[in-house]
Amino acid sequence: MANSSHPNQHPPCFSCRVLLLIDVQVNMLSEKKGVPSSQSVRQNIQRILEHARSAKPPPRIIHVRSCGGPSDPDAPNTPGWQLVFSPLPHEHVIDKRKNDAFADTKLGELIPIDAEVIVVGMQSEYCVTATCKSALERGNVVILIKGAHATYDCVEIWNGGKITKAHDIEADVEAKLEDAGANFLEMNYVSKLFEDR
C-alpha cells in the first residue's frame, strides 16, 4: 500500500476543517465512461476546491485515490487512475484499496477526531458512504455537498435487468447518511463553506 502524504509537510489544521476528495479520478469523470453527471459534478468539485484553496485560514485538503487491480480502469499509473485536480505541494494524497478510505491507510493520522470533514467524490454508495460512516464513528462532523458526489446507474441482473438511475441511488445515499448523522448542504452555500460560522 503506497501512501503519499508529504510526510515532512504537515501544516496545522488551523480551521479544524478538512476537505476530503474521494476518488476524484479521470476514470470516474471522463465524458465517455464516467458517472452520468460527470460534467456537473466535476464543475461543482472544482468550485469547492477553489473556495477551499482561497480560504483564510484554509482547511486541510486531502485527495484520496483508488488503486484498482491490473485490469481495472483505476489500476495504478494508468490514465484512469490519475487525479482530475493536481494536488498542491502542501496538500495530501492517500492511496487506498478498500471502500473505506480510513482502512489500512494513514488517513486517520491526517484528520483530527474533532475536525469537521467536508466530503466530495465518488462513488456515492461505496467509497463515499463507507468513508463517511467511519468518520462519523470516529466522532467527526461530516458534511456532504449535494451535487458534488455521484455514482453510476445500476443494472440489477438478479431483478430482471431493472436499472436504478444514478440520481436515485445518490438520493438514497443522502437519506441514509443523514439518518446516520451526516449533514448536507446545497451548492449555493459553498461560498460560505470555509468561513467561520
TrEMBL record:
Keywords: Hydrolase
Highest taxon above the source species: Eukaryota
Isochorismatase-like domain location: 18-153
Record's protein name: Isochorismatase-like domain-containing protein
Gene3D superfamilies, per the entry: Isochorismatase-like (3.40.50.850)
An annotated Gene Ontology molecular function: hydrolase activity
InterPro entries given in the database record: Isochorismatase-like_dom (IPR000868), Isochorismatase-like_hydrls (IPR050272), Isochorismatase-like_sf (IPR036380)
Similarity section: Belongs to the isochorismatase family.
Organism: Scleroderma citrinum Foug A
Cross-referenced Pfam families: Isochorismatase
